[in-house]
Design goal:
By secondary structure, this protein is an alpha/beta fold. The protein has a single domain, classed as Arginase, Chain A (3-Layer(aba) Sandwich), CATH 3.40.800. Helix content is about 45%, strand content about 10%. Strands 2-1-3-8-7-4-5-6 form an eight-stranded parallel β-sheet, sandwiched between helices. Strand 4, helix 8 and strand 5 form a beta-alpha-beta unit. Helix 2 crosses helix 11 and helix 9 runs parallel beside helix 10.
Length: about 300
Amino acid sequence: MLKIAFDPIYAHPLPEGHRFPMLKYELIPQQLLYEGLINEENLFSPEPLDEKTILLTHNKAYWEQLRDLTLPPKEQRRIGFPLTERLVEREIRIAKGTIDGCHNAYNYGVAFNVAGGTHHAGSNWGEGFCMLNDQAIAANYLLNRQLAKSILIIDLDVHQGNGTAEIFENEPRVFTFSMHGDKNFPFRKEKSDLDIPLADGVTDDEFLDNVYRTVPQLIDNQKPDFVFYLSGVDVLSSDKLGKLSLSKEACKERDRFVLEQCKNAGIPVQVSMGGGYSPQIKDIVDAHCNTYRAALDLYF
């Protein structure tokens, strides 16, 4: 059964001016339900994550400033919106949804978090609308519980997974791969285990050629027993924050191929949705729903 972490709090507590792109968190499950691809049984609402698990990944002082709403204004500006109790709750529920997704992926092969992909959050900073790094937290959870020995993080969002790279810089059990727009945010990049920076305007063929060449090699070389996949749709040509030029069809093929490689290798995969900032909300929702459609075709 396809299990999808979803909670209304994913969308609602955002400040004015940030709500439009966050509508997708409500509209994606609504669209999948409307198409009859899922039912209510596929959706689950995660509980808040415990502090002990958060502290496997994030610096104690940084976490306490988030929890107590005492993060300095400069650091709040780096995140991109003012800190509130509801926003912190949103982040810890997203992280728990990704952890729950790992257990579901072990059972069913693949699992989704409607939100997540908060890859700009480092061990002691938040940035780019990210406060806690959901997939990094979940990876450390798996390692700590000895549920995985070798983890591959595939980040194909248009922005580099700089926080993820920093968190696992000295962790040999986690291999971080980021393919992203070279000139896109963040402008100070960290060093992933493998970075493929792309020039502005890269289109379908070049992007997919890199995916076709790199993902099977990484799976073969790293032999991971768990994969995290960040499937941001801000690679689309319509995206107002991205500088790549992919079609919606290529974005779907990207997701199909990554998921197929994991399935064929028998590796469970947790998918977080990442960014998408096209002017038309229908384009964002449809592109994200394509990721679910690909998974349903492959796994169920």
